Amino acid sequence: MTTTTTQPPAASRASSGTHFFGDTAVLTGRTVKHITRSLDTIITTCIMPIGFLLLFVYVLGGAINTGTDISYVNYLLPGILLITVASGISYTAFRLFLDMQGGIFERFQSMPIARSSVLWAHVLTSMIANVVSMVVVVGVALLMGFRTGASVLDWLAVAGILLLFTLALTWIAVIPGLTAKSVDGASAFSYPLIFLPFISSAFVPTASMPGPVAWFAEYQPVTPIVNTIRDLFTGQPVGSDIGVALAWMVGILVVAYVAAQVIYRKKIS
């Protein structure tokens, strides 16, 4: 008696491999169109960090001693850029939640497309939207007096760090986007991430903080990222902070990516 094995359809095999990038590009175009039709999401994302920038530079900056010779807007900008990303990823969770509730994922699963391309489309859209928001914030900082002696390589290093930070936080955003029970729940996770830079070296040196707070500020992930970007902007030698920053971001990215993929498979199985 001959035993036969069932092979997956050719379209399914091709879709899961060869067509991943094409599927992701098409689905990314779909989600990007949603943003271009409602630019208020990017504007809203920029309002909070720009508000913090204006408040701390023009209202509180004169009372803050950073212990450095650089202007306060130069000192502040790295932390503000991280707040911009943390604010922007809440919309990733929001859009993903709406797609889950609207049954779009079920429709996609009935089509011969790579499963992971659906999530990657939302992630890449988040990257694009956050890059636009950060460019706007840097433009405002330039109008406020931000100046840098960073070389082209320094700027490329800053861009790489910010992109990696955005990618890591976006995969964190995917998790509540898939699991939240309400719209508010999908975006509320970002609030602790937005305020984490306040307990770091983003606004004041950690040495000026009380003991337990200073310890937390020194060893949480935002501080080495901020310090690295600040050194690059000022053209200073980058110390050990860059290794710690990369370790934090890669570790967060790996954990969040694996967790999101596991949750996604359970949701669509």
From TrEMBL:
It comes from the Bacteria. InterPro entries: ABC2_TM, ABC2_TM_bact-type, ABC_2_transport, Nod_factor_ABC_transporter. The keyword Cytoplasm does not apply. PANTHER family: NODULATION PROTEIN J (PTHR43229). Residues 40-267 form the ABC transmembrane type-2 domain. GO terms for biological process: response to antibiotic. GO terms for cellular component: ATP-binding cassette (ABC) transporter complex. It comes from Humibacter ginsenosidimutans. Belongs to the ABC-2 integral membrane protein family. The chain crosses the membrane at residues 42-64, 76-98, 119-143, 155-176, 188-207, 242-264. The keyword Cell membrane applies. It is a multi-pass membrane protein. It is found in: Cell membrane; Membrane. Keywords: Antibiotic resistance, Cell membrane, Membrane, Transmembrane, Transmembrane helix, Transport. GO terms for molecular function: ABC-type transporter activity. It holds the Pfam family ABC2_membrane. This is Transport permease protein.
